[in-house]
Amino acid sequence: MGTPPATRPATAAPPGTSVSPAGAAGPAGPRRPRRLARRLVPFAVSAAGLLVGLGVWQWAGQRDPVLFATPGRSFSSLATMTEDGTLPSALLSSGRLLVVGLALAIVAGVGFGLLLSRARLLRSSTDWLLFALQSVPIVALAPLILSAFGFGLPAKTLVVFLTAVFPITVNTAEGAHRVPATLLEVARTYRSSEWRIWKDVLLPHTVPYAMTGVRQGIAMAFVGTLAAEFFLNASGVGGLLLAASTRFDSATVLGLTLLVSVLAVALMGCGRAVEGYFARWREVES
Question: In sequence order, which ranges of 119-137 are alpha helices (DSSP H)?
Answer without folding.
Answer: 120-134
